[in-house]
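ugh ok fine here u go
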Amino acid sequence: MTPPLGANKAAVMGTAGASTGYTVEILVVGGGGGGPNGYYAGGGGAGGVVHAGTYTIEPGVEYDLTIGAGGGVGADGNNTTWNVNAEGGGITMTGNGGGHGHPNAQPGGSGGGGGVAAHAGGASNQPDFAGATSYGNAGQSGGSDPGQGGGGAGGTPAVSSGKEGGPGGVGYEFSGFVLAGTTSANVASDGTDGGWYGGGGGGGAWTGNNVDGGAGGTGGGGKGGGFGSASGRSSVAGMANTGGGGGGGGGDHSGGDISGKAGGSGIIIIRYAGGARGTGGTTSSASGYYYHKYTSTGSGTYTG
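structure:
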């Protein structure tokens, strides 16, 4: 009887060390947490980020991976994992999904934002991996009235003690991966100007005359919902393929945009110097490097 693939896949598809391995750089980003519906809700936490500056690929080995979806409204994001079955002797790396915001803010790669009356933000549960660096932070805990921002890959956001929603935590910039992510202004990369990932979602506003929700954190975080009749008060979803957290709902019982928004999906990008060596994902080349980008949620493979 032929054994199933999985843990034995490397032995079936290729043998580690059969030929000289080559070095790549890998970025792994989990799906962002969703911002909940409701009044003065906390922003979703960003998906956890893992960066391996040097990772050895064994030619002929097929590496499994999974891209995590962003969490729906008020739901946690999903994990993104490279090398699911530890093929080729390399480490497995997972960017945990971000936690959803208040009510009942949850831990995640970065934690969801807290809410009114000092409700705590979620902690970061992003693990560390040997040979790589992980990024994830707690969401901000509630101050007096508004929803607070979800944590970002680059830090826990500032607290808002007024009526405006708290800002999302800033993401982290990776200069070798500008083909995706966002600019420093939190605008989607055009393929040449990007590199920011893992921004936290902004918290929802409290009552007031045309009060804004918190800004999304650079790296794909969505803005929180506001209060008032002026345009631009709606909450915003986390940006796809950045792991950004979704904005929390704003307003109070008398009005406002109380709808939260979903988190952004995750991503995996592999790059190495020179021409094509492996196969898988969407490929491109720039400035002497070759890239494999994985953006579709669900399972995929990279063959060395």
